[in-house]
Amino acid sequence: ETKHRGIGKTLENLIVAIRQIDSDNTYIYYLDALEPVPDILKKLQKNEQVKVVTSQKIRRARYFRSVLRSFKPFKPDAKDVDVFLQPDASLGIPTTVPTTVIFYDLIPLLFRKQEQARAKKSLQKNKSMVANEVYWTKYKKDLRQYKKAAAILSISNASKNDLIKHMPEIDAAKVGVMHLGVNTANTNKTSSEVSKYQPYIL
Q: Is 76 within 8 Å of 152 (Cβ atoms)?
């Protein structure tokens, strides 16, 4: 579900980086039985394994899926792994093994009031407001997942500070910072090549 999102690219680049720096430890990649094998995992290194798991998708109507997870969180066996890396807290954070989760931002929380105001101005006001509340309910459940993590890797100091500020129940000592890497394939551009993409929006 994440292959077309930033999280998917983060995972892909992380696997590439791990392959470059570590050939001693064993890495197990868990794939959902209903999803195709990513290209990057079709050819494995000697210290890599792939295990197929069933996410137990719950087939419910659209709005129910917005509140209730469409799957049950995966529970890795402590006999298989020492540490489990969860790149997306909304997929659930297992407690059967020490789990490190990547934290990105609190955008839905920080811009909650603006989103509510936008929904009220919508042409389909009632529907938009209901959808907004449904999403918010699910988002709050996802946030509570972070309390289960043994460690949290924030992608920036700003995100780390937001998490600690807005979720004081999380132990700040277990929140670290791991900046996202840069894909060097996009950095060796000449000024004439880059200028094709104007205007720039930051």
A: no
Give tens-digit pLDDT for 60-115. 444 444 455 556 677 888 999 999 999 888 888 889 999 999 999 998 888 888 87
Q: Residue 150 in contact with residue 100, Cβ under 8 Å?
A: yes
Tokens representing residue 36 in the block: 């195709």
What pTM was computed for the model? 0.78
Q: Which tokens hold the place of 158?
A: 């700003």
What is the distance between the terminal CA atoms of the chain, rounded to a whole angstrom?
27
Distance CA 69, CA 87 (A): 17
Considering Cα of 113, then 118, then 122, then 128, what sign does the dihedral take? negative
Kindly state the tokens that stand for 181. Answer: 């890497």
